[in-house]
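cron nightly-structures :: item 1 of 1
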Amino acid sequence: MENLVLNFLTLDINTNNFMIFQLQNYLQIFAILTYFVKI
């Protein structure tokens, strides 16, 4: 039972890290696009 809870917690942490990683990627792409538009 304890293992189940731990697995859910690690899964949740991994998902949050993935979401933050994706968000950073989108921000970088957005920054590059706006940079090119300004030129």
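cron nightly-structures :: done
The helical segments are 2-38.
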